[in-house]
């Protein structure tokens, strides 16, 4: 196998000296009296909330609608020793709070392995790599511009400098409202990056939210660029689990929670949520119960439905329901996992981001890092290849004409990117089309629901929930999960969990020199 040459040990601690510790409320070490808390949703947000609460003595009951934990980062077994998931997920070094959650069962993060490169390729054949770029800003940005074939030096003259300076002139969360009403596409238009650099350096971030750049919020784009590139010294390289998500991550965490006294109900979708004089009644098809508090950490559509059905006449509830009603889900995404008759060329990267093809956004060679896939390859002699399209047309059944059109386009893209697959037989295949991710739209940042609701005993968590830190995707889910637990614990005067964040200030706000450059840039932009 090529695994040892492509991966190395995962570091145990953040290397960025500017990473910030977010101090939680200080009070009792544990709850002085029992509190019953329901956590609705067993994805990353719900698991983080359940962990934060159980470790402080709360009596937690977790309800998950699927047969396994992990939510939208779950995996499940298939026949013949194969498995399936909802697509590739990168565990970046900036995911401090998610990694802290995983360390509950894996202190050294031995169940993650480090990817040594993150190549990106356009349909024109241009490829960028972050392997040899320094991690520390601004050296990383300068090195990218100098080394990238997609960013000719002549392109610098066309870049709008005031817009470019915005990428290193952020302060969280104060700067986020600056982009209310602006899409990622509109921001990229005024930035005037060279066309190919725009696709590889920035637009790839937008599509990782399963969104078209014209519908995706500019604030999320600049947040991600800050978090992964211009604001953090962790770099753009990432880690992946050594095996499927549940074997590596969520099953051990489930055992940890059960040992901590958490009751976990799988295959238990919550269909009713009501506030009563005695507390919060949670209803499922098999029963439910009454709880002192609820962490609503289900998928966005389910959470919106439960909030819309709440009864009450308070202004807080009306405001929450109004905000939630304005949220929508992102376009569908497609995942195809293929078990092939032969192996792809040994020089192919384990993960390749793509841009400009019909639908393909990335392609993974799973036997390079996933133990279950590697075992299948060793037995059958073929690669396990996964294709991912982040934003496709409206939801469709995989076997429908529309679903088959998507499948055909992805297979054609694979055979273009990896030509050796043209003559390979597909031994087995799994194909998913899902549309259960929230759209990070251009509506005002303050209009999006936050962890706190103003309603006694109800807090929200998930990657669609507004957070005051530069976090996104899986890390936003973990962070809001811990923040939800901390909010309840603070109300009971119990010490919460300290969190970590990438720097909340951009380069131009960190030093006297930076502030001077910022003022000069703003003055130039005003002329």
From TrEMBL:
Q: Which residues form the Amine oxidase domain?
A: 44-489
Superkingdom of source? Bacteria
* InterPro entries documented for this protein: Amino_oxidase (IPR002937), FAD/NAD-bd_sf (IPR036188), Zeta_carotene_desat/Oxidored (IPR050464)
Q: Where in this chain does the entry annotate a coiled-coil region?
A: none
List the Gene3D superfamilies: FAD/NAD(P)-binding domain
Cite the GO molecular-function annotations of the record: oxidoreductase activity
| Pfam families linked to this entry | Amino_oxidase
Q: Which PANTHER family match?
A: AMINE OXIDASE (PTHR42923:SF43), PROTOPORPHYRINOGEN OXIDASE (PTHR42923)
What's the protein here called?
A: FAD-dependent oxidoreductase
């Amino acid at each position: 196998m090529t695994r040892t040459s492509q991966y190395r040990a995962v570091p145990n601690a953040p290397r960025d000296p500017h990473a910030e510790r977010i101090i939680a409320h200080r009070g009792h070490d544990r709850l002085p009296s029992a509190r019953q808390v329901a956590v609705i949703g067993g994805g990353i947000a719900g698991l983080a909330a359940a962990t934060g609460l159980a470790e402080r003595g709360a009596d937690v009951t977790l309800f998950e609608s699927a047969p396994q934990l992990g939510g939208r980062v779950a995996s499940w077994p298939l026949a013949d020793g194969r498995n399936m998931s909802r697509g590739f997920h990168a565990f970046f070094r900036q995911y401090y709070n998610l990694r802290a959650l995983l360390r509950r069962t894996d202190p050294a993060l031995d169940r993650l392995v480090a990817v040594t490169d993150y190549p990106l390729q356009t349909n024109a054949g241009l490829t960028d790599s972050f392997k040899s770029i320094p991690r520390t800003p601004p050296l990383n940005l300068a090195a990218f511009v100098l080394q990238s074939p997609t960013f000719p030096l002549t392109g610098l003259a066309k870049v709008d400098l005031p817009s470019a300076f915005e990428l290193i002139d952020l302060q969280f969360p104060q700067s986020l409202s600056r982009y209310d009403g602006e899409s990622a596409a509109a921001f990229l238009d005024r930035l005037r990056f060279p066309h190919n650099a725009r696709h590889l350096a920035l637009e790839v971030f937008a599509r990782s939210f399963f969104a078209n750049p014209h519908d995706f919020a500019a604030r999320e784009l600049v947040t991600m660029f800050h978090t992964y590139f211009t604001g953090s010294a962790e770099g753009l390289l990432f880690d992946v689990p050594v095996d499927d998500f549940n074997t590596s991550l969520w099953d051990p965490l489930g055992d940890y929670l059960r040992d901590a006294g958490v009751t976990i109900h799988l295959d238990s979708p919550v269909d009713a949520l009501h506030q009563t004089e005695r507390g919060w009644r949670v209803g499922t098809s098999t029963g439910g119960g009454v709880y002192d508090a609820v962490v609503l950490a289900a998928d966005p559509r389910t959470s919106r439905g439960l909030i819309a059905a709440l009864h009450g006449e308070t202004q807080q509830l009306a405001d929450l329901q109004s905000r939630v009603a304005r949220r929508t889900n992102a376009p569908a995404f497609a995942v195809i996992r293929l078990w092939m008759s032969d192996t792809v060329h040994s020089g192919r990267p384990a993960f390749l981001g793509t841009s400009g093809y019909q639908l393909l956004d990335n392609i993974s060679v799973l036997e390079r890092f996933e133990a279950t896939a590697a075992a299948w390859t060793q037995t059958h002699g073929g690669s396990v290849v996964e294709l991912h399209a982040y934003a496709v047309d409206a939801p469709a059944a995989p076997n429908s004409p529309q679903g088959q059109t998507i499948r055909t386009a992805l297979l054609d893209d694979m055979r273009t990117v990896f030509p050796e697959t043209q003559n390979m037989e597909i031994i087995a295949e799994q194909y998913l089309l899902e549309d259960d991710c929230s759209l990070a739209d251009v509506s005002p940042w303050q209009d999006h629901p936050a962890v706190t609701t103003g309603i006694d005993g109800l807090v929200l968590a998930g990657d669609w929930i507004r957070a005051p830190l530069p976090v996104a995707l899986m890390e936003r889910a973990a962070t809001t999960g811990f923040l939800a637990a901390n909010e309840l614990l603070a109300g009971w005067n119990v010490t919460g969990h300290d969190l970590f964040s990438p720097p909340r200030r951009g380069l131009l706000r960190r030093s006297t020199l930076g502030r001077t450059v910022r003022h000069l840039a703003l003055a130039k932009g005003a002329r």
